[in-house]
Amino acid sequence: MKSKLPAVPYLLWMGVFTIVPFLLVIFFAFTDSSGRFTLDNLSGITSYIPVFGRSLWLALVATVICLVLAYPFAYIISRIPSHRQSIFYMLAILPMWMNYLLRTYAWMTILENNGLLNRFLGLFGIGPLSLINTQGAVVLGMVYDFIPFMILPLYSTMVKIDNSVVEAAQDLGASTWSVLTRVILPLSVPGITTGITMVFVPSVSTFIISRMLGGGSWLMIGDLIEMQFLGNAYNPNLGSAISLVLMVIVLIIMSITNLFDDEEVGEMIK
Amino acid sequence: MRFRDGAPYDHYKRVPVGADGNASALKNLLRVVVSKGALWYGRSEKAWAVTKPQRGVVPVDNAVIVSLQNIVVDFDGERVLKGIHLDIHDKEFVTLLGPSGCGKTTTLRIIGGFVSPTQGDVYFSGKRINDLPAHKRQVNTIFQRYALFPHLNVYENIAFGLKLKKMSDKSIKATVQEMMRLVNLKGFERRNVTSLSGGQQQRVAIARALANHPKVLLLDEPLGALDLKLRKEMQRELKAIQQEMDITFLYVTHDQEEALSMSDTVVVMNNGEIQQIGTPQDIYNEPGNAFIADFIGESNIIDGFMHKDFLVEFFDKRFTCVDKGFALMERVDVVIRPEDIKIVPAIQGQWTGVVETVTFKGVHYESIVESHGYKWMIHSTGYAEPGMIIGMQVLPDDIHIMKKMEESA
User: Fold this and answer.
1) Which end of chain A has fewer CB atoms at under 10 Å, N or C?
2) pLDDT mean for each 10 residues of chain B (409 residues)
């Protein structure tokens, strides 16, 4: 049997920085400021249901847009000759090399009322349109920031689909559309579920994007939590409770997605 | 030149193929012979006996189903096919044979619709199909690595093409069952294809391709990944399947033994060109040039020159031969098969040599004999001690004279 010793450093890390904080969050969520047990924090959340709803909805919209944009792109680059694949792959992940705050600031200067886009449209006598501080701007920011996390898993799943399998489908009479729906799509399900997870989770809990592009008028869960720890509303117990609920929601959504994935895999093994 | 095979071939040769008289009755008679042969084929060890009556039965006069006209293909500026002309007849078993990189797979992929020729035309049943996409062609392919759909089970793999045709579930089921019987896979319907052995995956690939009832089945080195014993078994089965389905097979292989034992027609390719098209007997007995002689079976290839018709000289000795039509003193390649050289006492030999090594090969001994600086390969049942001086004899019939290839100059 292999030695488990090399795993010890990370196990320690995980204990100190994952398990302990997680327990602390649970502790805070169920106590008041003097440390006594209470359910008030959790019941207080009900007044924030619209914020939860908006966060989940915007994250869902952003995830769907990412999937729709990334899927054809990932498919096409996975089918071109491999020496050219690496160029497109690089371009897809290039934004990730730049600081995420900087990228979001860049969008502010583009979308502002007298920003680049409005000035450009002004040349044609259009506008100024109110682009910033809208839900659309928030979704745009999420899509822009998180789309590489959709492209990467999709691409890495699709590139593993042997070209001869595609040819076999064509050979048996499958048109381009049938090849996509009957072969590529079912074989890329693992990439789709990973991509959804990797875009949805950061989207639902983001606060910088909604603050900078939503102007604080479209409060999201992330903003709400931040306010409880750093803002005027200072209430770490409520903040912990919100975090805990968010975690549970994400967990439920992920298990639904994985269920879909497992079914597909089950189909393969049946 | 004489035929190499003995009785079985002669036996069938007595059927008067091509004789005048009632041709259709004759064809029917031959069909019976073939189909009986096919039944017997799967069970008998003497499989070779059945491929023989095929000769002459197959359908040189059947309509041409696939025709390649002056096909040229360039990949990245490199010319991989240099003007291929090939007619494939209906119900024919045609093999493209050649070393790797000779263009045989590219030729197959042109017919399948996966490669567009740079120049030239592809015809299917008389219609030009250059621009017809792969999914609309009436051919199906068995790919080198099977290319089964990993997300579908055996049944769904075989039914894939039928579902696309929007057939009823009932007729899909019937066809799939029929195909599974054909390839001996009954009871494997629900199995995951990735859990199958190589041989079983191969069978699924065959069933999947045949379920669409193609007029032409393309096989791209289908047995390359199997071990020897399984290869032999699958060779027999594929031949039997071809006869049962009564369709055209175009088979790509680099294995000359496979090509000779399965085909009606062998197309030998090298360097993007067709070297020779003929029956297996023709290709073996009358190779068109030294490359073919060397590639198909073993050969001794010696430089020689023609004194006049029917007289060739090599290693300072003159030999009577059966070839003519060369220029006076023209330099030629002389090809002699190892099994055509007879070992005799030195005194009786047409020429002599010293035995260097002898290897026992089961049916025969393979001796390497040095003579005039050339190492002759001889296959014989008789044994001569290494170090012995022996005589060698060859019949005029077995001396094959070939025009010098440009490359060997």
Assistant:
1) N
2) 37 36 42 38 34 44 90 92 94 94 94 95 94 94 93 95 93 94 91 92 94 95 87 92 94 92 94 94 89 88 90 91 88 92 92 93 92 91 90 92 67
| Helix %, strand %, coil % of chain A (to 5) | 80, 0, 20
Q: Do B262 and B303 lie in a common domain? A: no
pTM of the model: 0.77
Residue A178 is assigned to a structural domain of this protein = yes
A39-85 pLDDT, tens digit each: 888 898 889 999 999 999 999 999 999 999 999 999 999 989 888 89
Residue ending a domain, among B237, B259, B285, is B285
- Across the interface, do A169 and B141 touch by the CB < 8 Å criterion? no
Average pLDDT of the residues in A21-25:
93
Secondary structure class of B176 (helix, strand, coil): helix
CATH number at residue B346: 2.40.50.140
Is the CB of A173 less than 8 angstroms away from the CB of B153?
A: no
Residue in this structure with the two tokens 């502002």, named with its chain if needed: A112
Going through B180-263 in order, the beta strands assigned E by DSSP cover 216-220, 248-253
Measured from the Cβ of residue B62, the count of other Cβ atoms closer than 10 Å reads 13
Q: First and final CA of chain A: distance in angstroms?
A: 32
Q: Are B161 and B167 in contact (CB under 8 A)?
A: no
Query: Does B365 touch chain A if contact means CB atoms closer than 8 Å?
Result: no
**Set of chain A residues whose Cβ sits within 8 Å of the Cβ of B189:** none
Q: Which domain holds residue A213?
A: 31-269
Chain A nearest-CA residue for B142: A168
Residue of A nearest to B136 (CA): A173
Please give the single-letter amino acid code of residue B332.
Answer: V
Assign residue A239 the CATH number of its domain: 1.10.3720.10
- Domain total for chain A? 1
The answer, yes or no, to whether residue A215 has pLDDT greater than 70, is yes
What is the tally of structural domains in chain B?
3
